[in-house]
Amino acid sequence: MSSVISELPAMDVTQFKHTPFYCSEENVYLLCKTLCENGVADANGSDLFVVFISNEKKQVPLWHQKASTRADGIVLWDYHVICVQRKKESDSEPLVWDLDSTLPFPSPLASYVSQTTQPSFQLFAEYQRFFRIVHAPLFFKHFASDRRHMKEPDGSWTAQPPPYQAIVAQGKSCNNFSTLPLTILISSACFFLKDGVLHNLSEYITMSGTDTLSSLDPETVREAISQKLGVLVSHAQLQDLFTKLP
């Protein structure tokens, strides 16, 4: 893939629905839907990939984060979620959409990785980051979260939830759920779930180095990216993966 950088200008992050400090997976879900609706991405999200960042310890250091109180912008997240856009028929570099970053929105993948993960910074092994890349159409179809991870043992919220409904998996009564406009998604009362799934966030953020792809050959990547939970790769494999996607 060419290193030509997309000419898409920086966009106003305030155009996108975003609840700071709350469920970055929901923020990215709505971000992807908006990119599809406003024509920046393909209508079905085929050029978008949802990327979960975490590790076994659930402690991943990322720089240039709005939530930081430090000059370098570092935050130790339990997990973080971003969107990467890769135009299949384009020579432009993939773009990263991160609602929680102080970097340009969007940012070229190479620049984002360099500045956000600071690869020259020596980390203890337990803080190494892993990346789960999920094709957006599959994410729309399968992901579900009832926000239970945002509750205290007594049932109270750790932070005030956003006003829109929690994300549900595509179900029989909502067989076009992944193509519904964002305005309908936010007000939707449709709760018929695929296979009865209410919450599967843990499947996406559970990561181990032993589960990363052993090879990035095209056939292995093609098969893995077609799966519900996508591809799990190491930091060293991340950028190369986006050159191997079908």
What would your notes on this structure say?
Keywords: Hydrolase. It comes from Eruca vesicaria subsp. sativa (Garden rocket). Pfam families: Nt_Gln_amidase (PF09764). This is Protein N-terminal glutamine amidohydrolase. One of its GO terms (molecular function) is protein-N-terminal glutamine amidohydrolase activity. It is a single chain. This protein is an alpha+beta fold. It has a domain at 13-136 and 207-244: C8orf32 fold. It is 23% helix and 14% strand. It contains seven helices and eight strands. The strands form two sheets. The protein has a six-stranded antiparallel sheet. The chain is globular, with a radius of gyration of 17 Å. Residues 1-6, 172-180 and 183-195 have low confidence and may be disordered.
| CATH class membership of the domain at 13-136 and 207-244 | Alpha Beta
* Biggest sheet: strand arrangement: 6-5-4-1-7-8
Helix/sheet category: alpha+beta
Order of helices and strands: HEEEEEEHEHHHHEH
Give the averaged pLDDT, no decimals: 86
- The oligomeric status of these chains comes to single chain
Helical residue percent band: 10-25%
Question: How many strands appear in the DSSP assignment?
Answer: 8
Shape: globular
Determine Rg (CA atoms, Å). Answer: 17 Å
Family: Belongs to the NTAQ1 family.
Subunit structure: Monomer.
EC number: 3.5.1.122
Keywords: Hydrolase
